Amino acid sequence: MTVEKQREVIRLWNQLRKVEGPAAEEIRIQILECFAERGNAKRAAA
To answer: What local confidence, expressed as pLDDT, does residue 15 receive?
Structure first.
């Protein structure tokens, strides 16, 4: 992931933190799962 993409994800995450409700929580969970999968893939490749 490029630095620009990382900044965009952080910006969107910060906007999402202002939103309440089950839909917002589900989106947060999906984002965290995406990063967890990438982290596991990086560890497995090392």
So the answer is: 84
3-class state of residue 20 by DSSP: coil
Report the predicted TM-score, pTM, of the whole model to 2 decimal places.
0.53
Q: In terms of DSSP H, where are the helices of 1-46?
A: 3-17, 22-45
Contacts of 16 (CB under 8 A, 6+ apart): 24, 27, 28, 31
Residues 13 and 35 sit within 8 Å (Cβ to Cβ): no
CA distance 2 to 10: 12
Q: Which residues contact 27 (CB under 8 A, 6 or more apart)?
A: 16
